[in-house]
Structures are given as C-alpha cells and as structure tokens.
Model the fold of this input.
Amino acid sequence: MRRIVFAIPGDIEARTGGYGYDRRVLAEFARQGVEAVHLALPGVFPHPTVAEEAVVGDIFDRISTAEDVALVDGLAYGALSETTIAAIGAPIVALCHHPLCLEAGLSPARAGALRESERRALSLAAHVIATSAHTGETLIRDFGLPRRKLTIAPPGTDPAQRAEGSGGAPKLLAVGSIIPRKAFDLLVEALARLADLDWRLDIVGGAGHAPQTAADLARLIEAKGLGGRIALLGELSGEALEAAYRSADVFVSSSLHEGYGMALAEALARGLPIVAATGGAAGETIPDAAALKIPPGKVEALANALREIITDSALRARLSEASWRAGRALPRWDETARIIADVARGLA
Done:
C-alpha cells in the first residue's frame, strides 16, 4: 500500500461526531507513520445531483492510483452510483457511521432510495468499517453485507478529568448537532412536564446543519416558558466544551438513533450520570449501571427518568461511579486508527 486516500465530503472541521471521528483518525495516522491524505469531496452529500455525484470519479482520478487504498466516509459512499464507484481506481474501504436511510426527517421515498443505493455501494466495497457492533450487525442483517467484509473500529475517547458538577440545582447537559435525529424537541417537551422541579439545561450543538429544526427548537423553548432555564449554547470546542462537561450534573441524550454515540462516551469519560434513549448503538455504548435508559421517541418515559434523576442525589452518585469506571475502560484513538490501517494494509 502506497497510502490511504481518505475521502470526506464537506467541511472536515464541522463539529459533529462523524467529522470528529475522521479528524482524529487522520491525526493518528500521522502519529503512527501511516501515509494518508485527506481528499475533500463536495459538501452536497448524501443528496447530490447526478452531475455533482459524477465529479467524485474525476476527483479520485486526479489524486489516487491502484497502489492506494480509498477510505471513503459513508456520508458520501452510500450515495454513490455503481458507475462512480467503478471509476475509483483503488480498492475501497467504506466507513459507515450509521446507515444513511436511518437519518430522521427523510421522506419514505428518499429513505428507500438511500437504503437501496447504500446496499449496492456496500456490495462493491472491498471492505467495510463500522463504528459500532450494532451498526455492523445492521449492515449484515439489512444490507446483505458478508460478515467477512466487516471490521468494527469504535471511536476513541480521550482521558478526561471527572466532572465537578454545578454545586447547585442539577444542571443537565445535552450535546449534539441540532438536527431531527437528535430529538431535542422531545427533551424540551419532557422537561416542560417538570416545571415544578429546580433544574437547568445546556444544549451544546450547531444549528447550521438543519436551520429550520434549530429555529423550531428555539420557538418551542419559548412557547413552553423555559427560556430562562434552557440555554442554547451553539457549537463549543476546546476549553469551552470541557467547561460545559465539567459543570454538568447529568448528561441527557434523547437521540432517536446513534451509530455509536461519541458524546455519550465523552460523558462516561467524565463520570457523569446519564439519561439516554437507546436508539441504535446508544444502548450498547453506555453500560446499564451508568444510566437510566429509555426507549427512543417516548416523551413520558424521558420525563419520568429525568424526574427520578433530578430528585435523587443518591441515584446520581451511584450512576456516576459506574460511569467513571466505564469511562476509564473506553478505547483510545490510537486503537481506532490502528484497526483501520491494518484493514487497509490487508487489501494492498
């Protein structure tokens, strides 16, 4: 293998779990002496026009050779046609964070088209890397992927200091892009039922990926009379994000589906007690002892779990201890990159 050509659509600096995964893997490749280049693809995926999608073959043709291995982020790969995939001159490793058709807010027709497109695309990949065992099993069961072509490379998590808490009324923290799949509206609806309790909520996540969803969320918060208790902090990184975790008392995820749940792992790394919906891989990422788990999409169950954890400090302490233990056992990013590099070498 000459090198890994890592094709990623859109802005690699975007503050999402998928882009964070890609950034860290590229950085670890460099640290491990694995020759790799970032190949930027148009940011129109996973919904390109025919003309926009056809550009991908030309982009690969200009930079890659048959001696390379093409590592293609699933946000683009699942939407590529057979013709475009055939034009990529290197063996292909598809990186699947979660199936494209499982993104919330898609019309049935679009979800069906993406399911069939991704099924065909995965059948043409030399190998597929999934970011969780749950996603891998989904690809085998629902997309016909042979098990021999699958490798699991879960995200790494950096060691972190234990959260200190707010020192006052329980501060809840939710982290994720404001998109339909994260279901922050359900979290607001649940908390509206707990107006009799003393709590605060910080939501950390960018609004740019689904501006209408973000605008609707802001209006819902005001309509429920929670503007003084729920703060939309936007995208945070570095020390600002660390400070949000450090001052939190409880981490909350109302997401409908997670391919892994990197923010959940970050919460475990800081020993935060968790309330989480178990859509997708989320239920596997967090151990039972560290969280109150609820079915995705169920407002009443979410409200009940939040009431329990807000009012019971002993429960929070018990969940926190289990979370802290689990966080110290999480995989690290060097392991993630090594798994992917080994797959690429095996195809060379």
Observations:
- The two ends are 5 Å apart (CA to CA).
